[in-house]
Amino acid sequence: MRTAVLASGRGSNLKALLEAQKRGELPIKIVAVGSDQPKAAALELAKDNGIPTQVFAPADYPNRQAQDEELLIWLKENQVELLLLAGYMRVLGPQFIRQANIPVLNIHPSLLPAFPGLHAQRQALDYGVKVSGCTVHFVDEGLDSGPIILQEAVPVLAEDTEDSLAQRILEAEHRLYPEAVRLLASGCVKRVGRRVRI
Length: 198
Fold this sequence. Notes:
Elements (H helix, E strand, L loop, with lengths): L1 E5 L5 H11 L6 E7 L5 H8 L4 E3 L8 H14 L4 E4 L8 H7 L3 E5 L11 H8 L3 E8 L9 E8 L6 H24 L4 E3 L2 E3 L1
Parallel strand pairs: 1-2, 1-4, 2-3, 4-5
Antiparallel strand pairs: 5-6, 6-7, 8-9
């Protein structure tokens, strides 16, 4: 599957996907990487791997709809069949989700539906949960509310800080995201309405 990735930061999940692709574990080809942050390390990682990049900085658009429209053009020009959000810190608008008409996946650092949105690790610590983790899900028109594909639990330790918990969850993300993408791209996972069939 021709795949595009959107990332806002350092690109560690992009790196995990690229490594799995190079090992022949993923039936995808990452053909484009975009970011809302012109200086995102993920863009440099993509360039180092010979992947074309594009910046969609919010300041360059009069509103979110205009940004979403350019994202849609980018997907079409690159003949993208699968879009992966890998630490992309902007919410895609409902119109984008409807018009993209391709699977859009996201990885989130909690066991959804618990702790959606920003600062999931801080939320987990504030609530005093004993187990957190990460979730790969289809993106829908809500906030981290789409059908769940895979989850991996990560214990919350008594001495955990937001950073230490985030780091352990990130290690789980690097295992979980490639596996979820493999299942989807190989036809083992299908979205049926609000449910996922494996």
